[in-house]
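Quick start: read one record
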Amino acid sequence: MHSVPPYVTYLFATLLVAMIFCLALEEKLHAKKSVITGAFAAVSLLLAAVFGLVHPETVILLGHPIRLPVYIPGVDWEVIAIILGSSLFVDVTSKCGLFTWIAIKLTKASGGDPLRLLIFYGVMTVVFSAVLNNVTAMIIVGSLSSVSLAKLRMTDKLLGFLLVEGLLTNVGGMLTLISSVPNIIVGNAAGISFVDFFLKASPYVVVATAVTIFMGARLFRITSLKEEAAKSQAAQLVAGFDENDGIESAGFFRFGTVMTALFIVAMASVSVTPFIRDLGMGYVALAFALIMLVRYKSTADRFYQAMDWDLLAFFGCLFIVINMMEHALVLELIGDGLKPILGLGETTGAGVLLFASAIASSVTDNIPLATMLAKILGTMDMAADSPFWWAVIFGANLGGNITPIGSASTLVAVTIIHKNKLPMSFAGFVKIAVPFAVVQLLLAVGYLLTILR
């Protein structure tokens, strides 16, 4: 690494702090994430050029030298491809009606019993968060909860359902390598395979899900129906739901179901599949998205329009900023600050890092945090099975359960709560959520230090 004057490092560190502060105040500034990070990326690139920190790179492609702009190598294109392909695949597949069909089937299977409904919806939230994404899972399950409880005349329990579901989206977001963006970023940097990630994360997710549902049922007094007349009436009311309402084509429904299963298998076996392992998960995600788009080949542009391009632009600009921070030795500075924590050893150090990551994620976007820490740990040659990688994964995901702005899915949960005219302030959410978050974090620390160590 080249020599950088200390004042330059501190100048770039100030820029990084300012960017994180602006991202935390995104709504107050009325600015999209991509605009915020784009502005800081432009300033960082300009200052890096002024101080001579970066220079264009030349690569040889098919025997010809190609000059790359300084911002191209800094972007993790594999992460971009995974997010783009997975988002398109899920968006198109959801049109087949599979996820709505599953949701209504579970609703009918509950017989309208409140406690059983909470358990079914809680598990469904976790699974949908793992297969889809946190926000989509919350929208599907949250909307169904509103409709179902209104039909069952149990709207007094809606607040409890929505809060538990919101908290479980971040628990479910830890189930697979592609369940959440921090997983993708950290897992990619650590070299954790899809299967290994699932095998190590799933025991914790199962326990945390059960504990969260139990705490929610106790706190909001959601119990089973006792009287036979009430059970019979509830069963009759949920029987009126039709799981086939969202299926526009039986053939496409079957095709979407098969492709969803194949997508999961393909992503899980990337590292051992000949030829595909050289192309990576990003290729698999884009290939499956393309296959699904063939169904809507004449109107595929509407799916492109519905894509969250702000998120992708945000990532691209964020990677550039982090790359410039690396050149300015800001990451080395932060790494030096983390050394006392890492020096505590894999037992105490990992626990402290987990709680620190969670607290930081609760007040700002967890994506810059995960990106920065992944880059720092990567420069320290951490092994893929190091507890420190998992401390960042657990902390970045679970920190979203402390405040309503800690993750997009909890923000969606609060939005649905307000839409149903239920009282819920920022402080009110924190008061209810903190006990859940503390228990989840303590479970995570215990699991990290006893099982993953």
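The beta strands are 57-61, 64-68.
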